[in-house]
Amino acid sequence: MESLRVAVSGGELQGVLRRGLRMWRGIPYAAAPVGPLRFRAPQPLAPWAGVRSAVEFGPVAPQDRNGQFAGPPTSVPMSEDCLTLNVIAPAASTDPLPVMVFVHGGAYSVGSSREIRKQGEGLVRQGPVVFVNVNYRLGGLGYLDFSQFSTRARRFESNLGLRDQVAALEWVRDNIAVFGGDPANVTLFGESAGGNAVTTLMAVPAASGLFARAIAQSSPANAIYPPAVAGAWARDYVELLSEVVDNSSTESTSPEDAGTLLAEADVDDLVRATTRMQLLTPDRAPGTVVLAPVIDGDFLPERPLDAFKAGRAARVPLIIGTNDREGSLFRGRLDILATTPPRIRAIFANTRKRSRKALKALYPGLPARRPAADFGGDLAFWYPSVKVAERHARFARVHFYRFDIATRLLRLTGHDATHGLELFALFDRMDGLFGRMLGMLGGRAAFTRAGARMQAEWLSFARDGTVSDAWPKYTQRKRRTLIIDRVDRVEQDPRGERRLAWQEFVPHV
After folding, report:
1. Stretch among 190-204, 247-261, 263-277 having the lowest mean pLDDT
2. CB-neighbour burial class of residue 117 (10 A; exposed 0-12, middle 13-18, buried 19+)
3. What SS3 class is residue 310?
4. Residue 287: which of 509, 64, 499 has the closest Cα?
5. 108 and 138 in contact (C-beta within 8 Å)?
6. Which of 213, 347, 488, 497 is the most buried (most CB within 10 A)?
7. What's the CATH superfamily of 317-505?
8. Structure confidence by residue, pLDDT tens digits, 19-36
9. 3-class secondary structure, 154
């Protein structure tokens, strides 16, 4: 294994040459957000002396290893000092290469840039491209807004995870040429919460010019909340944290007391309070996700969907889409969507009777499990993605997709092409243990072929913004959508009846 050295802003890095690829892992892109920098915007990285090893992944952001969503095993290091990224590049290249920057998902509560160990390697080999994936702050440390507790002595800033992502993109702009990448040819892409990050960053002024194209996979694009909602959640969180720390509810929510509690709490207690909030919120506020960006009027000045409507979002080419049955994954402890009878009733209670009847007719049997899963998945992922596409298409080129292919096992279990499945296609995961299990009853070869076609489209888009001739652009009039299946096809306005019904049901989206 040959070692590689490269100089970046901050100092010199030592990576490795492995399997014909150049790799650097655990590269810091901002100062560690610890001590007085907890709950503060990312700060510039101080230079280091000597050569820094970039062979191992950096620690993952603090998260619950055994919470509502599966976190990393105990063998994976975890730390608040988590603002790192990884770079993979071809072993040899001459001209500057396109850059693909991936933002991981995980409901803004779990996940990391190391959860798929070989993530991006296939794209780099086939592209060729330079691949970057990033860690950012999660949970209460990154996605709750405690700014109401700021005092002269202690400041709390909003949208910390989102600010981390901008800092990572700035690092790419300033340093990626050293790795063979073209800083003027960056494609930002992400899935689930990472897809939300993509559609949100398109509306963040500080991110303007940091990427030339965007791909949003299964983005809950409307999971963005006003200060009043985010502020109430912050106060609820402080009460929960007080119970976790002291085993008793706090008697005071003054900025000084709340700020001291947040600043001095053990990180494990912060994580435990976050998990409690996640478990409570789907029933307290059905249809919402407690860990999400906030419209703070500054860093994120408006709701992204409003920015798309007015043409104020970054006017870059966009690929956006969802999977066939997004909601079928969210069962048991994973169920955070509007899929239970009480949650569905709560959402229906605030709508007109005529709209309720029209929508119910398109989900026969609601609130039985299968139609409820589709209702919740469409509300969270599909319909907001449609709104992003139709609005952005007025100002920039958009291509819309739906990922339909699934193995026989997934069909038999009722999951079908569920949330996150396309990652197995895009990142060559069918050769892994879980991928082989998914294909053990058949369908693995067809799924892998569909993945190869998907990879080719993503790489072509990253290269110069084009896709194959078989995939027409999406417009509000024609709504042509690529259906990725055993045999790909293009449909015009698929599920148009649902779209119209949702438009009447939630006209504010």
Report:
1. 247-261
2. exposed
3. helix
4. 509
5. yes
6. 213
7. Alpha/Beta hydrolase fold, catalytic domain (3.40.50.1820)
8. 899 999 999 999 999 999
9. coil
DSSP 3-state assignment of 237? helix
What confidence score (pLDDT) does residue 253 get? 66
Sign of CA dihedral 290, 277, 161, 61: negative
Q: Which amino acid is at 14?
A: Q
Q: Measured at the alpha carbon of residue 473, what is the angle toward residues 456 and 205, in degrees to the nearest 5?
A: 90
Please give the span between the terminal C-alpha atoms of the chain, in angstroms, as a whole number.
53
Domain map (residue ranges) of the chain: 1-316, 317-505
Separation CA 494–CA 483 (nearest Å)? 9
Residues with a known catalytic role:
192, 326, 419
pLDDT computed for residue 251 by the predictor: 55
Residue showing tokens 């040819």? 185
Q: By the 8 A CB rule, do 324 and 336 touch?
A: no
pLDDT of residue 190 exceeding 80: yes
Give the pLDDT score at 414.
96
Task: Look at 508 and 469; give whichever has higher pLDDT.
Answer: 469
Secondary element (H or E) of residue 4: strand 2-8
**In angstroms, rounded to a whole number, what is the distance separating the alpha carbons of residues 194 and 287?**
19
- Measured between alpha carbons, how far is 137 from 141 in angstroms, rounded to an integer? 6
Instruction: Label residue 1 by pLDDT band (50, 70, 90).
Output: low
Block residue for tokens 């991006």? 120
DSSP one-letter code for 86:
E
Q: Identify each DSSP E strand in 350-416 by its residue range.
A: 398-403
Enter the pTM of the model. Answer: 0.97
Hey, which CATH number is domain 1-316, 3.20.20.70, 3.40.50.2300, 2.40.30.30, 3.40.50.1820? Answer: 3.40.50.1820
Q: Looking at 285-340, list the stretches that DSSP marks H as alpha helix, in order from N- to C-terminal side.
A: 304-310
Has residue 411 got a pLDDT over 80?
yes
What whole-number distance in Å separates Cα of residue 461 and Cα of residue 216?
A: 13
Share of the chain above pLDDT 90, in %: 91
pLDDT attached to residue 396: 98
Rounded to an integer, what is the distance from CA 314 to the centroid of its chain?
18
- Helices 193-201 and 160-175: crossing angle, nearest 10°? 70
Q: CB count, 10 Å around CB of 56?
A: 10
Please give the helix or strand (H or E) that residue 269 lies within, else none: helix 267-284
Residue 462 scores a pLDDT above 80: yes
Which of 63-67, 144-148, 175-179 has the least mean pLDDT? 63-67
